[in-house]
């Protein structure tokens, strides 16, 4: 058996990986995918009640802390990703997740952040800390994650 085809395939794979790393470190077109502070701290998770997108007092406190920390760290971009539980219609859940993220984004704007510094996304139905085998409503699913890019 010739090793040449295997060597050629390995070479192509390695070169492909190198091309992926050639992208700029902070490509705005990549939106939140360029996140250098991608570890989501539970302190910056904003939780919601079922079928709701209103900010609780605790959510506002978390946003205040995140906003203060972001300003102290000279954050260039805030990434806000909304999620919803698996209950009900998946399209409605995706919309709810986006609306939750928008509510959080508006709160950051009220705290002095420019709207063009904020990226809002919806990941639709979340699986929280549960497996796909369970479809029960979980607070881990009803949240918005806030992360920063520098």
UniProtKB/TrEMBL annotation:
Residues 1-27 form the signal peptide. Pfam families: OmpA (PF00691). Residues 35-150 form the OmpA-like domain. InterPro entries: OmpA-like, OmpA-like_sf. PROSITE patterns: OMPA_2. Gene3D superfamilies: OmpA-like domain. The keyword Membrane applies. The keyword Membrane applies. GO terms for cellular component: membrane. Keywords: Membrane, Signal. This is OmpA family protein. It comes from Pyruvatibacter mobilis.
